[in-house]
Design a protein that fits this description.
124 residues; mainly alpha; 6 helices; 77% helix; 0% strand
Amino acid sequence: MAYQMRRSAILVSGGLAVMVALWRAVDAGLALARGSEHALLAYPLTVVLPAVLIAILLGFPPAESREGLLMRVGTIIHLLLIMVLPGAALHLALGLPVVFLVVELFETRLPARWRDPLARLVMA
């Protein structure tokens, strides 16, 4: 059985990535107008790279396991956080393995009455 993301989850996460990228581009332009080029210099690593990775993750074929799909969704959420919180981007990027630990704990320790409805929010 293959597991795939709901169409609405794909559209929401892709739309959020585009909105955050535009917001950060405007913010970088305003910072550049004030004479600070730091936001513009950080833009490729804190916005462009995560946005490309989100696009790649959204384009993957269906996952072979439910846990694999949840790890993909967790990684997308984590990349969105990197885009939204530029001051914490390095710490978030270094903490990416925590996503896999959280998914593993979610799958193995959370009671099924909570786990299954939460997982169905993103799975088709």
